[in-house]
Amino acid sequence: MKAARNSEKDPISEEELKRPCRFCRTPLEHTFIDLGVSPLSNSYLKTADLARMEPFYPLHVYVCKNCLLVQLEELSRPEDIFTEYAYFSSFSESWLEHARRFAHQAVKRFNLSEQSLVVEIGSNDGYLLKYFKEQGVLVLGIEPALNVARVAKEKGLETRVSFFSAAVAEELSLEGKKADLVVGNNVLAHIPDTRDLMRGLKTLLKPGGVVSMEFPHLLSLMEQNQYDTIYHEHYSYFSLTAADQIFSAYDLCIYDLEELTTHGGSLRIYACLAGNESFKRTTRVEDFLKREEDQGLKELRTYLNFGERVKKSKLDILKFLIRAKEAGLEVCGYGAPAKGNTLLNYCGIGPELIAYTVDLNPYKEGCYLPGSRIPIYSPEHIFKTRPDYILILPWNLKTEIIDQMAGVREWGAKFVTLIPEIKVT
Q1: What is the rounded CA–CA span in Å between residue 396 and residue 186?
Q2: Residue 18: which residues within 8 A CB-CB, separation 6 or more?
Q3: What distance, in Å, lies between the first and last C-alpha atoms of the chain?
Q4: Which of 39, 51, 129, 149 has a CA that sits 20 to 30 A from residue 24's CA?
Q5: Are 344 and 311 in contact (CB under 8 A)?
Q6: Cross-strand bridge partners of residue 252
Q7: Is 103 in contact with 135 (CB distance < 8 Å)?
Q8: Is 273 helix (H, G, I), strand (E, B) or coil?
Q9: Does the CA dihedral 3-9-11-15 come out positive or negative?
Q10: Of the candidates 185, 76, 45, 79, the residue with the CA atom closest to the CA atom of residue 125
């Protein structure tokens, strides 16, 4: 048994400071971006919480020199983030339409029927599985957040309240629940034990089954300066290059992909068990791997240059908001997304610069943003205060939000987005 450390006499050794890559276990020595410290991005505060201390965690992202997987340390447990969750997928009409199109496309593409089973990992409030069920396909959601899973169950969607793991996959397999299609939309980054996830996918799939995973593309994050998409519940940030290595190490073959505009630029990959002759690797996969190589994603130095652009963005944002304040203009926010909390905390922005924000999700209304402690109201509040600038924090939903809030034009209000750079509309 290892003796307890005396912090004064037994300083942490250099060897102990080395963090292992969550995939290949190589020590993590190279910084991708250091965003300081930040609270958990979905830990919204009630009024009673304002008198209490908030826990802050380092938001320091590393890149593995071996497999080039970009990743955060697991400083917060998934149980601390996802057991009670503030994000409900069904509040975005554009995301619902995205899910509906995929479900109808998948039913046709994979010849799914009433004998088929679709399992979604991180199924949230049933935003996707309901479209499969409407077509007569059997569905099962795996969702760790009890409050969110409850909404899915109320819709009549079978949902298992659990974190997905190889052990859960084994349980389902023993119950005879093997999947024709496993879906994971924006969940690949949320599971810290990447190797356990791969083992679970392999166990859960039928021999002829398919895995479909959507995830924000690392190259888009870098090219579009989307540093606000970095937060503690995103443990990993994937290129196709890294994903292909990880899947193939567990006898899963990425055989096709689609480029998506969602979340500022995403990939949807399709994978099958290695050796499945029904799915041949397309030229799209090879061409995309070549494109990433041409963009430098197979070279470590490419990842090490990202930080300087982020620092400049912080200075530009603060200058814009301070000038607006000095000119007597009122700025409010629209949305209370996790990405907004990263941006606000990294830039050190509070109610002195952004008076409040609004959100359609009643779960967030009446709360305060973590760290910045900016109050959250319903969207109607904007029409009461008539601000000059409306800062759209979920910039990926910019078009949808501007359409929803078109009435603010009557007093000359303007919309502002900050990523990839400041733009006033």
Answers
A1: 14
A2: 27, 28, 29
A3: 62
A4: 39
A5: no
A6: 273
A7: yes
A8: strand
A9: negative
A10: 185
E strands in 113-204 = 117-121, 138-142, 159-160, 179-185
CB atoms within 10 A of CB 206: 15
Residue 119's beta-bridge partner residues? 140, 182
Alpha-carbon distance of 309 to 425, in angstroms, equals: 23
pLDDT one-digit tens code per residue, 381-399? 999 999 999 999 999 999 9
The whole-angstrom separation of Cα 179 and Cα 290 is 32
- Amino acid 84: pLDDT: 57
**Using CA atoms, how far apart are residues 405 and 335, in angstroms rounded to an integer?**
12
The answer for residues whose C-beta is within 8 angstroms of residue 6's C-beta and 6 or more apart is none
pLDDT at 76 (0 to 100): 64
Label residue 63 exposed, middle or buried (CB < 10 Å: 0-12, 13-18, 19+): buried
Backbone angles phi, psi at 260, to 5 degrees: -125, 155
Model-level pTM?
Answer: 0.89
The rounded distance, in Å, linking the Cα atoms of 213 and 217 is: 12
DSSP secondary structure letter of residue 58: E
- pLDDT tens readout for residues 172-217: 999 999 999 999 999 999 899 999 999 999 999 999 999 999 999 9
270, two tokens: 């399709």
pLDDT at 178: 97
pLDDT computed for residue 86 by the predictor: 57
Task: Go through 378-409 and write b for each residue having 16 or more CB atoms within 10 A of its CB, e for each that does not.
Answer: ebebbeeeebbbbbbbbbbbeebbbeebeebe
Whether the bond between 379 and the residue before it is cis, its omega within 30 degrees of 0, is: no
Element (H or E) spanning 63, and its range?
A: strand 57-63
Q: Is 322 helix (H, G, I), strand (E, B) or coil?
A: helix
SS3 state at 394: coil
Q: Exposed e or buried b for every residue in 220-238, given b needs 16+ CB within 10 A?
A: bbbebbbbbbbbbbbbbbb
**Tokens 């991005």 — which residue?**
41
At residue 9, the pLDDT reads: 40
Q: Smallest Cα–Cα separation from 156: which of 139, 171, 169, 172? A: 139
Tell me the sheet residues that pair with 258.
268
Report how far residue 377's alpha carbon sits from residue 409's, in angstroms, rounded to the nearest whole number. 20
Q: Please name every residue paired with 192 in a beta bridge, in sequence order, or none if there are none.
A: none
Residue 124 backbone class (left: φ over 0; alpha: ψ -120 to 50; beta: rest) = left
| Predicted pLDDT at 250 | 97
CB–CB of 333/390 below 8 Å?
Answer: yes
In the predicted model, residues of the chain with pLDDT beneath 70 are 1-18, 76-88, 90-91
